[in-house]
UniProtKB/TrEMBL annotation:
Residues 34-206 form the Exonuclease domain. InterPro entries: DnaQ, Ribonucl_H, RNaseH-like_sf, RNaseH_sf. The keyword Nuclease applies. Keywords: Exonuclease, Hydrolase, Nuclease. It comes from Aureibaculum marinum. It comes from the Bacteria. The lineage of its organism: Bacteria, Pseudomonadati, Bacteroidota, Flavobacteriia, Flavobacteriales. GO terms for molecular function: 3'-5' exonuclease activity; DNA binding; DNA-directed DNA polymerase activity. SUPFAM superfamilies: Ribonuclease H-like (SSF53098). The keyword Ligase does not apply. This is 3'-5' exonuclease. GO terms for biological process: DNA replication proofreading.
Length: 216
C-alpha cells in the first residue's frame, strides 16, 4: 500500500513511516478507535499566506479523554501578525520553546499515526496542516477526520442538513454546558472540543451499537 507514492516522490523516512501505518477499518467499534482531537492557532485565516503558530491535541479512547496522551507544540514564526496576538497571545519572541515547521510536522505525524482526527470546523485546520506539509515536500494528511460541528448538527437534528446553522465552539460550550477553560489556545480548544465530542457521541450512541462508519 502507498508504494506508488514512494516511487512518485522521494519522501523522507518519517513520512513513509506515517503512510505505512494505514490500514482502513471503518467497521471498528467506537470503543476500539483512538480519536485525536486537535486544534491549531494561526496568524490568520488565509490558508496560503498565513501560518500555524501552535498545535494542541489530546486523545480519546473508549470514551475516555486521556490527558496523559496529549500533544502541544509551538512553531517559529516566519510570518508574524501583531493584530492576531490579542486572540491567541503567542508572541514572536517570549519564553515559549518553538521549533521549525519541519520538526513540528514530524512530531505531529508521529503522534497522530493512522488514527481518526477530530476538530471543530476541522476543514480549516486540516488545510493549514496540509499547506505546512506541502511547504516541507510532504504529501497530505491521510487520516479520516470528523467535524464536531457536523456531528453536533446530527445529534441535534437527527440528520445532517446543509441549511442548518453553523455552530461555533462557543455555541457548543453553551448548549452542552462546557466550561471555557483556556479558550483560544490550541491545547485549551482541543480539550474543550474533546469534551464536546464525548457529549455528542453520547447523544448519537444511545443504542450502544454505533460504529465509526456511521459517523463518516
Amino acid at each position: 500500500m502507498f508504494k506508488w507514492l514512494f516511487k512518485r516522490k522521494n519522501y523522507p523516512d518519517s513520512y513513509k513511516t506515517y503512510l505505512a501505518g494505514f490500514k482502513k477499518d471503518e467497521k471498528k467499534l467506537l470503543s476500539e478507535t483512538r480519536f485525536v482531537v486537535f486544534d491549531t492557532e494561526t496568524t490568520g485565516f488565509d490558508k496560503i499566506e498565513d501560518r500555524i503558530l501552535s498545535i494542541g491535541a489530546i486523545s480519546v479512547l473508549n470514551n475516555t479523554i486521556n490527558v496523559s496522551d496529549s500533544f502541544e507544540i509551538y512553531l517559529k514564526q516566519d510570518v508574524f501578525k501583531s493584530e492576531s496576538v490579542k486572540i491567541h497571545g503567542i508572541l514572536k519572541g517570549g519564553n515559549l520553546e518553538k521549533v521549525s515547521e519541519k520538526e513540528a510536522i514530524e512530531k505531529f505525524l508521529d503522534y497522530i499515526k493512522n488514527d481518526v482526527l477530530v476538530g471543530h470546523h476541522v476543514g480549516f485546520d486540516m488545510a493549514m496542516v496540509d499547506r505546512m506539509m506541502r511547504r516541507n515536500n510532504l504529501g497530505k494528511l491521510k487520516n479520516l477526520c470528523l467535524d464536531t460541528g457536523v456531528l453536533f448538527k446530527m445529534s441535534k437534528h437527527l440528520v445532517y442538513q446543509e441549511n442548518l446553522k453553523n455552530y461555533s465552539l462557543d455555541d457548543l460550550c453553551e448548549e452542552l454546558k462546557i466550561e471555557k477553560v483556556d479558550r483560544h489556545t490550541a491545547t485549551g480548544d482541543a480539550l474543550i472540543t474533546a469534551i464536546a465530542f464525548q457529549k455528542i457521541l453520547a447523544r448519537l450512541n444511545k443504542n450502544k451499537n454505533l460504529k465509526l462508519k456511521d459517523l463518516l
